[in-house]
Amino acid sequence: MLIFLFSISISTASAQKQKLSLQKTYEAALERYPGTDEKIAEIQLAAFQSKFIKSKQLPQANLQLQNSFGSIEGSTGGFFPLPGMFNINGASATDETSASFNTYGSIVADWEIFSFGKLNKEYKASDIKIQEAWSDFSIYQLNLKSIVSRLFLKVLYDDIKLKWSQSNGLRVNEILKISKVLASAGLKPGADTALASSSYFQLLADEDLLRGRFESSKHQLNEFTVSEASEKNPESSNFLNAGLLKIAIGKYNNHPHLEKISHQIDYQNALKEATQRSVLPSLSLLAGLSSRGSSAGDNWMKSRWANGFNNGSTNYLIGLGITWNLTGIYDKSLKKKEIEQQGKIAESDYRQQELKLNAGILSTHSRISEQVKQVSKTKIGVEKANEAYLLYRTRYENGLINLTELLQIQFLLQQAEEKQIEAYKGLWEQVIIQSELTADFSNLFEIF
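Below the sequence we write its predicted structure tokens.
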């Protein structure tokens, strides 16, 4: 009888359509898992923040409306007392000091027309934040590939272990049938049947345990795929085949973790330039339009509220203003030094990540190279164990050995198969680690 490891049959065409590949599993997870929406929202948030900073380059307009009651005193001149309002008074034509109802409305525009490039640098920094958000999304995709690959391979591993247990059960069941025939013929004692039956039911119990683990693994994968894993079965035929594996030393070109740190360095540099320019003054164009009314006129005064809309006048005012925060020069110098230190931290982190990736890639390559040799040798071991089992089973059928010896040989074959499965599991775990380090899961997608 062919052993389990070499008896995985090719499914029918209709069954093949129900198989779930690793790449389709990942695509389903990327489309349906809520974490994707979170990362996309972060990108949109960074884009809105960038637009907000860019909007500072537009004129800022302030509108105010007032209705008040108070004293009046004549004065001359025009000025901007506060942002959002301006005042123009004429000389009073009466010496009386009284109170009046007043109506006032104004609109003032403040357009910062020159700031030594400060706003452009802030906008540049905000644009880098958008790129960093995209890097975060790439990191999320890489992490999702890693998680889905591990869960997917765990499903395959548990599926293989379940089939392995079922194969062992079939072998021992055949031994049980042979022992019954020999016992009925009086060639073997009846105790052989009891012993074989005991081994058979122990394997059935193990099969129930492994079936539970297999279903549990599918539910864990289903967290990310929503329904794909429960409706379709992952393809496990390549789990015990390293023929498609590429073991060349990978590279980490455009690794998302390095891209993110690189954007952080660029952001700190842009922020540093913006901070340097923020200590310089800014030039603004000011323009305003106001309309007022009062219950006080030339040599007359009215005390009704509605008269506050009489005696109206409309004025405009335009001018240039320079704003220079002199007290903030020292604060900005401290801020600049803080940003410089943050930039140094990011640069150091970048170099550390490079060293970590290089060392990790070389380490996994060495392990994968040796594990490929390991699985090749375990395959030979399984073949030899199977040959031995078939020979010893024939000898038992001919009454040349006892049942205990045959069960021992069957157990050795069972161990050899299990070691092969565990060897492949260790190999694929290292391949996942290498794929994480190189940010390249294409080979795994091709295999599974």
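The beta strands are 19-20, 60-71, 78-82, 85-88, 99-114, 233-234, 282-294, 296-297, 300-301, 313-323.
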